[in-house]
Specification:
Layout: H1 2-9, H2 17-20, H3 34-73, H4 82-111, H5 114-126, H6 132-146
């Protein structure tokens, strides 16, 4: 859908904002497939130790945020002090920072995993979206994985 809107924006005035948006794709995987299970187990094994403190921090901050929201729900909006608003804002920022760290760790794992790249490239190939250098890299990776 987004790709089509970006293509149409070239021809219509005032639709340039679609051209600035990144391409996004949704990939649906069969989570019962043995290969997908293997990738998930491997990801869990390799990232569990580094993710454990981050996930604990996220859980703690989310609990703190829930308590802050619960306290604020008891008050009228004009009764909420600036300190309470800042506290909520800082807690939300801490949660987003920790989630960014989590995503960075998972992305780092995925960048170094050829099977993840292969699964993504297979999905792109199935939809006719794998071309040029990406197709060449896919073929070379396929040959290397077979050896």
């Amino acid at each position: 859908y987004m790709r089509r809107m970006k293509a149409m924006s070239q021809f219509q005035a005032g639709m340039n904002f679609y051209g600035q948006m990144p391409d996004s794709y949704n990939i649906v995987l069969n989570s019962d497939h043995a290969l997908v299970k293997k990738v998930l187990e491997d990801a869990e094994a390799n990232t569990a130790e580094t993710l454990k403190p981050i996930l604990a921090e996220i859980k703690g901050q989310e609990a703190r945020l829930a308590v802050l929201h619960q306290e604020q729900n008891k008050k009228k909006p004009e009764e909420i002090t600036q300190q309470e608003k800042d506290d909520v804002h800082n807690t939300e920022k801490a949660i987003s920072d920790e989630k960014a760290k989590r995503n960075e760790i998972i992305s780092g794992y995925a960048k170094n995993n050829n099977i993840v790249h292969q699964l993504i490239d297979l999905a792109l190939l199935q939809n006719g979206m794998l071309k040029g250098a990406s197709l060449d890299a896919f073929l070379k990776r396929s040959v290397d994985m077979i050896k």
